[in-house]
Amino acid sequence: MVTRLSHLFLRTLRDDPSDAEVTSHKLLVRAGYVRRQSPGIFAWLPLGLRVRHKIEDIIREEMVAAGAQEVLLPALLPREPYEATNRWTEYGDGMFRLQDRKGSDYLLAPTHEEMFALLVKDLYGSYKDLPVTLFQIQDKYRDEARPRAGLLRGREFTMKDAYSFDLTDEGLERSYQVMRDAYERIFARLGLEYVIVKADAGAMGGSKSEEFLHPIGVGEDTFVRSAGGYAANVEAYVTPVPDALPIDGQPEPVTLPSADTPTIDTLVAHANAVAPRDGAPWTAADTLKNVVLALTHLDGTREVVVVGLPGDREVDLKRAEVAFAPAEVEAAGDDDFKRHPGVFVKGYIGPQVLGAESDSGIRYLVDPRVVEGTAWVTGANERGVHVTGLVMGRDFTADGVAEVSDVRAGDPAPDGSGPLETARGMEIGHVFQLGRKYAEALDLKVQDENGKLATVTMGSYGIGVTRILAILAEAHNDDKGLAWPKEVAPFDVHVVATGKDQVAYDLATTLIDTLEGERYDVVYDDRPKVSPGVKLRDAELLGVPVVVVAGRNAADGVVELWDRRSGERRDVPVAELLEAVRAI
Amino acid sequence: MVTRLSHLFLRTLRDDPSDAEVTSHKLLVRAGYVRRQSPGIFAWLPLGLRVRHKIEDIIREEMVAAGAQEVLLPALLPREPYEATNRWTEYGDGMFRLQDRKGSDYLLAPTHEEMFALLVKDLYGSYKDLPVTLFQIQDKYRDEARPRAGLLRGREFTMKDAYSFDLTDEGLERSYQVMRDAYERIFARLGLEYVIVKADAGAMGGSKSEEFLHPIGVGEDTFVRSAGGYAANVEAYVTPVPDALPIDGQPEPVTLPSADTPTIDTLVAHANAVAPRDGAPWTAADTLKNVVLALTHLDGTREVVVVGLPGDREVDLKRAEVAFAPAEVEAAGDDDFKRHPGVFVKGYIGPQVLGAESDSGIRYLVDPRVVEGTAWVTGANERGVHVTGLVMGRDFTADGVAEVSDVRAGDPAPDGSGPLETARGMEIGHVFQLGRKYAEALDLKVQDENGKLATVTMGSYGIGVTRILAILAEAHNDDKGLAWPKEVAPFDVHVVATGKDQVAYDLATTLIDTLEGERYDVVYDDRPKVSPGVKLRDAELLGVPVVVVAGRNAADGVVELWDRRSGERRDVPVAELLEAVRAI
């Protein structure tokens, strides 16, 4: 097949679109692959759709090879199943909701666990029917607060989502592994670097989940990994808990007037000067910082909680979101403080007056490092006064543990595999062992070998099709434009004829016949009145992996051959062209 | 490729689903092709998706062969473009509307004229860029009042919609013809009988439109055709207008006391008895029936109008909808009559007191047959009194003509090609010459040869993908199940192994190897503990065109071969199987 640029619905742009923040967005719009229609919602132009179909085909092939069966569920879904699993509420503002003409509630599917569970319930009833894994390639909708980064985070986007159904936990483990393996093959075929990290199952529920992250600076996820093989999204990182220390024999707390210690550092220096301890000096890690957070629960009630963490740590709000889900969390504001008059002495908050059982009734949670027997420098709940040697389990207690501290390079991997490094990545796949949460909510049971009803256990496996396209664009470009891997390129070869001499066009036509004979998919820049400069710039921008230019040496039967990805360009006699193209 | 029934996500049903009214709906659900998810919204199971993809591929191939380029626009669209063309309002309750988290209005696309026009405006600016025809295969949404008939009229459904853009009317005519020809090829490849009928452009606007109707009893459209080649949807039928008659010399109207004439027939008999006219006797076609209708305009105002039509005709409400669009029309109710006290004497309404210029101010419209000089028997606006010989243009006038009378077999074709026959059909394709309505509303202009801005003219071309699948099921079945044409069948060959004898299964496996070697797509019923009766019934229900049964004669190397569509079944030695399969 040959596509003529003079006919192709395409308009390349010199300048970056004003609303584009990331490279892939800029290039995909400039090169005429997509156009923005409204915030986070895009139209697919012919070039973009070609790349997209290739990505979908690779995913589809590997899914089928892994034994998954393709189905297609609607995007417009009734409220009731999502009500049963509570996600109608839990999704909050992130879900598009609407009513039909009769006033019935509907939603635009953000993901399809409920409907797949109901479909299997509808058709299957026996353990003999299981396991089964179903998938679809389908549009999804999420009403992002800040749709940005082009296709990397859209409001209408395309996913391959798969769901496995098993009778036993071991079966789920197997089905999960099969999908995980398929994902590795898919990303390998796409030439897409990935790291598999432990992930927080989050709003999806379930017992185990892993993310496939593509390491990339514009990534929205931070992950950590050790040389010894541990890898996790920071939201899933679990702080190693130190051993408890003996309380007996520890000195009593000492009151520390501390009016002039505006920072942790000055407080630590002051404590070491005025109230030093035996053994080691106080460090920032020995101060107990008490951060006031405000939670908004699903029922709309607002709760103030305090989290105590070592003074050398900060609260990571994304980790806090996971810790307190499904409640929403933010720093407490003036109104929150006002609702608890007299409790909080700003800058001098200490745990002594906190706790669900205390007079204040305010829940007090601590970082996992705050174990029994640890001694702390912290506030005395009095302006200008701290206290040193306040011992956990003796002088104060906590209502629980909260994993809200930030995770840093150098922190230990929880499995003892060494210090962590941190990196940023973008989620390109996610595999979940959902377990029985959805099946229980929707009453998905089958008869087991003994004729008894048993609840099915589910897995859920997602790949962002349109996001992958953007990440491939992000990973494969240079300052001149896109440079697609051949597996997903919109065409195999881009033939350009330049100049006013008919011989170049005639040569191009001959070459295209040859290339078509070898089943190459060719785009031909046959535009008659476009300058060579524009044609060559467009060839660079469009990013087809092989470019053949029939220009000034056409009369001698010589063309210029570009390897768009390596950047190599050389003159090739026509007789050797096919071989040279094959080599790229 | 072989698909094993023991693995396939499929459950066939013995009984028709309770909510299914039409055959295709019953069979597609029973045979496990689709499942209903909510009213008018379906999930596609593996078999259904296979057929659907085959239909899509045929459509896509023919679109590309006709020079159309594939793109993909979003389903979730902003309000503004639809506001510009007034369709945000005109679509009424039929459109799904929603708001995002910021309160901006969106819709789920019922069709995409606006967005395609804006896309071309966005990318193109010169006459040199035209013509261009774009298409997509995409989900559409319409909030039907009574979703029913399964996939024949859904609320979420899939269409191929194409749009052409030209500078000139002649260009549009050419682009239209190219698409029309492509549609003929598509329906020919799908083996789908069709009639091309003149259609009402309706809410789409535009100058010319034709429908591809598949003649079928459950069809929602009534069309008429003549032996001489005229064909039109009844909504597009234009009544031939008789010549006006001379008024001079016609007798004056005669008052006709008519208290005891409850029907047209009794009135006619009474008139001929009491007030006969010279020449021909009065007939039902000479009575003028005045029907009171109520229009609801887009701005919500309600208007009462009266339509005068020959007494042997009825008002066809679908034709009335077209005549009065975009207003909605229904029979006037008591409330409407109350708003015009003293005007309407039920059973005796006559045109003498009607008309926009009359005291009542009520618009009076007439059937096209009510031309100047025609004389009528009609009401005298007084209980128990009619009048005969009331002459149009002398004794009463009208504010205009309304095409609301029903069209009947035997009526003349407007082009003089003979009497009409009527039939029912289902719309499978629709081609429109939209003209400049959308381009004007959205300011889609390009520079013409002289550098002046010229408004583009558009065409719009739709095929219902999912509806076609249902119609194919409707057209190809028998009392045992589906019987797909081979072009769209989910598999080429259905191999069944029956009995407890391993030899049948071994033979089946060998046959499948042979069939796969010839690139046939095979489904294999390998289910070990399912009875032969169930397997054979499922083979009939699923409707794969060729069925091969390895059963009792397997040991002799003989299988039973079914041609599912002709119903022929015969024993075939294995050695001759391939040839016999090819012959079907």
Describe this structure as you would to a colleague.
2 copies of one chain form a homodimer. Chain A has 584 residues and is an alpha+beta fold. Chain A folds into 3 domains: 23-193 and 432-473, Bira Bifunctional Protein, Domain 2 (BirA Bifunctional Protein, domain 2, 2-Layer Sandwich); 254-401, YbaK/aminoacyl-tRNA synthetase-associated domain (YbaK protein, Alpha-Beta Complex), CATH 3.90.960; 491-583, 3-Layer(aba) Sandwich (Rossmann fold). In chain A, 25% of the residues lie in helices and 29% in strands. Chain A is globular and about 95 Å long. The relative contact order of chain A is 0.14. Chains A, B: It catalyses: tRNA(Pro) + L-proline + ATP = L-prolyl-tRNA(Pro) + AMP + diphosphate. Chains A, B: This is Proline--tRNA ligase. Chains A, B: GO terms for molecular function: proline-tRNA ligase activity. Chains A, B: Belongs to the class-II aminoacyl-tRNA synthetase family. ProS type 1 subfamily.
